[in-house]
Amino acid sequence: MSETVSISAQDVNKLRGMTGAGMMDCKKALVESNGDFEAAIDILRKKGQKVSAARAENVTAEGTILTSISADKKNGKLIAFACETEPVSKVADFKNLAQSIMDVAVAKNPGTKEELLALPLTDGRSVYDNIIDLTGKIGEKLVIASYENMVAEEVVPYVHSNGKLAVLVALKNTGGKDVTTIGKDVAMQIAAMKPVAVDKDGVSSEMVEREIEIGKEQARAEGKPEAMLEKIAQGKLNKFYKENTLLNQDFVKDSSKTISQVLNDVNNGLTVTEFKRIAIG
After folding, report:
1. 12, 48, 145, 234: which sits with the fewest CB atoms below 10 Å from its CB?
2. Which long-range contacts (CB under 8 A, 24 or more apart) does 107-113 make?
């Protein structure tokens, strides 16, 4: 580090305008780089990488979730952009970066989160590099917690009022009817009731085995004969399916009907093929 280089307040402000980093961080970077702005930017980016690494184990329980549906309603995207604290989730730079990430996802249609992170934003640098830079500026761990890219006959979104919970629902057999209202109702049901699968066929074999074993242990604890345990456990498993798989759940707005029945009332054969429920925190 040279002691002869004079760093003016104007230089510091210029670097701050270029990077958005704090005044003291900008001054230190300029001093370290002997007044070389490009080198100072690299120093600040490295600082961001160091901050990111140092906070790698920190919990990102705050943030925002964005959804975007294509004009033909056949493609839905969901991005959960997470941070450590609520105040950061409300910072303009954080919200603007989240929107920029969604914009590039819509424009380039990446299939995975890794592909999304590698895409360039309008400044020519990747999504990943922009996240690292903002990490350095804000001093908190920032991550794309989830990226979902859903294709279906029609995709309907729902974002909860707190902006930290969102759902995408894939519908099939719409019959050309407007299914936006029922789609949103189903999405809200998913948000509230947390089904584990669309139907019982979507429940993993591990989960089925666990529920059967739990059912047997409960029956055994109640003093039921060993010969009856399997039958009792199967009955409890059917109850599990009823309460925890979407199409078999009672519709929250009309408990006399299941979700499957309500969908069929809108159009014969209308059903859900897939859903994603993403929450931050």
Report:
1. 234
2. 109/75, 109/149, 110/147, 110/149, 111/149, 112/147, 113/144, 113/146, 113/147
From 151, 170, 204, give the residue that closes a domain: 151
Going 279 to 142 to 95 to 139, the CA torsion angle's sign is positive
> Measured between alpha carbons, how far is 138 from 55 in angstroms, rounded to an integer?
12
The residue segments making up the domain with residue 68 are 57-151
Residue range 32-88, pLDDT digits in tens? 999 999 999 889 888 888 878 888 889 999 999 999 999 999 999 999 999 999 999
Tokens of 232: 């009792």
Q: Which of 40-54, 172-186, 188-202 has the lowest mean pLDDT?
A: 40-54
- The CA distance from 41 to 47, in Å, is 10
User: For residue 150, what are the CA distances in angstroms to 18, 35, 68, 108, 223?
Assistant: 37, 48, 10, 14, 48
Residue 124: how many CB atoms within 10 A of its CB? 7
Give the per-residue SS3 of 167-208: EEEEEECCCCCCCHHHHHHHHHHHHHHCCCECCHHHCCHHHH
Total domain count, the chain = 2
Same domain, 105 and 39: no
Query: First vs last Cα of the chain: how many Å apart?
Result: 43
Phi and psi for 69 in degrees, rounded to 5?
-115, 135
The mean pLDDT value of the chain amounts to 94
CATH number at residue 119: 3.30.479.20
Are 146 and 62 in the same domain?
A: yes
Copy the structure tokens of residue 104. 């590039």
